[in-house]
TrEMBL record:
Record-given protein name: CRISPR-associated protein Cas5 subtype I-C
InterPro entries associated with the record: CRISPR-assoc_prot_Cas5, CRISPR-assoc_prot_Cas5_N, CRISPR-assoc_prot_Cas5d
Keywords: Antiviral defense
Single Gene Ontology BP annotation: maintenance of CRISPR repeat elements
Any matching Pfam family: Cas_Cas5d
Annotated GO MF terms: endonuclease activity
Amino acid sequence: MLAYGIRLHLRGRNALFIRPELTMERVSYDVMTPSAARGILEAFHWKPAIAWVIDRIHVLEPIRFQQIRRNEVGHKAPAGSIRQAMNRGDLAGLQILVDEDRQQRASSVLVAPAYVIEAHFTLTAKAGP
């Protein structure tokens, strides 16, 4: 199959590519993961007929971390309860009181990351003739 290439230059104030083995505190990988790069490309251009393949991720800035703390709510409202309340037309009882359910979480985030993603796409079975 034919492959078509692209280079995308990304830069940001902060980034967080969460390590799954650290469940309570969010700690970033040192570098963007290939799956994150693929997700970014799919956010720009997604079609069922193509599949993005990451060839290289270039790191343009030194890897630096910053520790931050954020206030979060400890739980989410159950989807079933929300659905029932919407069907009833009455949203009473769905509130989450932040003062009662606040949790402070620490995160280790990347500071001023910059990357160049090199990738190409291949055609999938949904590409047609």
